[in-house]
């Protein structure tokens, strides 16, 4: 199990912790976000394996240019917020996107600051320097590329109060996908739901631009649908009716948190629709719980010039049959983070919401969730007061009123049990098993609570506080059955004075399964690829077959595509043993000879030989017909021979590494990317696109989009070793 990490800062908001699918942790810390990435295992080191397990990077996220955050002139009180205008930009929300959105198919970090700006961050460049790559608020301007000053309702619409990444919407693979299905089938469509000061919920689609034409704006954000929460319902029913306070609260209510449930497929309403799915979105509006639904439809575009199928998304936000009664599920104020929990086998989907004295769990049958069945008169609703566990823990009822500040749910892979973990600002921890159709199990104390208690006891002894101390939990996150808990320790019954250097917090890890205690390398190891058990030659055969069988018809008139097909055919000759793939390579070479007029007699003849090599081209061939297909040493201008699928050597002896996917020789520094797991070297297609001003040949782009993780181990890429 990873060791606890002592952090030299204090978290700045509820849900301060987020754990990405790549294993990176992000912590909200005032004006900064601290990012913890696992260190590479040093097999030569004789020190303890658990020592210094993480690299910690601190990025300041509250510095904006005038172009990014325009000046706001004083306006009427309904539209202008002095607090947001003069805010220092403290982090109030942090969350990783699902994998596949960012560079090298990694996750993108979304950060919401107290000036109501939501920005996206990712590491850029060979050194991996974290950089702001998009500001989501700009989508609400008339011209998102040149945001201007806003006033009135438009200003309120641009102020983002809360956000959450939706689960990835996975499209089913097309019939001709084969070994490399479309990116939307592997990674899904990435959607983001936000709420603003105009009391609206907006569904956004976020995409990364892969053509390299606009390097300064690497992401595209599109508005898909909008839902207004202004329906006249009570937002603060706890206030005295007909009072001035209630009237003021009613007009100033804002949606303070939002959460999107899982996607469930719904029947298609038209033959033009490729796939359609629906999800229920929950939000806390004032102190009331509100739910509504979204239906997203994917339309498949016809591939042009061999380009991989692209999916356009349309969406609709509308009332759900449960919308009318959702505010009546509990008479108590709802506040804090929301959470949806389910598994593929669950008969119901559970929504968990904190209240002022405990938490509420609502189990919604799948048929009701998708809207195909009428909601029953009584749903399976349970509400547990935190005082039950607080008394059992010996703390008494004095601290159970502290709000819930962290929540995470996950399914144990071994037992299949779906469990929900909660933490409060008084250090109370809760775990609740959700058995699919009903959330009727009794809450209990989690295993990570023991770590919190031990650290709190040590804090108390070091300062001789006599038990007058408390732990505050700032966030929970889960990854492969392991729960990470972020907490700080404080004295009670006294004034706490501290300077910045005294700010401390602890990040600890635990599992409910006592027999499951993986080290950090085992826990964060990449998921095993379906082809990892194949030999390297078989994996290369899959790439060669994919290109030559489905895309060599687009080579006519495209020199770059011809060069790539020639390299793949040569790789088949020197590396492959199967007769079918070598026969296919012969057909491609014959066609290239006809298209270019090049003399490919040697290559065609070697297709029938066992373990052949291809000699380097002569000076005459390198300047004759089809010369653009042949590789030439950029050091001495000599031809490069084909002796291996992994190495290239010119006639003068200069040695180069071949790309692990295109099998072209990599002759220049700075053109490579590397597998983060096996260190295999590949050509970085984004760098090539920038060199060609975005004009990357379709065949090259499709190949690298189809095989966007390491061919040999399934690991994700990085810019440097």
Quick structural overview:
Pfam families: TFIIIC_delta, zf-TFIIIC. This protein is of the alpha+beta class.
Structural account:
By secondary structure, this protein is α+β, with helices and mostly antiparallel strands. The chain has a domain at 536-718. α9 (536-550) packs antiparallel against α10 (559-575). It is elongated, with a radius of gyration of 29 Å. It starts with a strand and ends with a strand. Mean pLDDT is 86; it is low at 46-50 and 436-440.
Overall residue-averaged pLDDT value: 86
State the total count of DSSP E strands: 35
Number of helical elements: 15
Provide the gyration radius in Å. Answer: 29 Å
Which spans have pLDDT < 50 for at least 5 consecutive residues?
Answer: 46-50, 436-440
Largest sheet: 5 strands, antiparallel
**What does the overall shape look like?**
elongated
- Helical residue percent band: 10-25%
First-to-last CA distance = 26 Å
Estimate the strand proportion.
Answer: 25-35%
Structural class: alpha+beta
Protein name: Transcription factor IIIC subunit delta N-term-domain-containing protein
Organism: Penicillium cataractarum
Domain Transcription factor IIIC putative zinc-finger: 620-717
InterPro entries: GTF3C4, TFIIIC_delta_N, TFIIIC_Znf
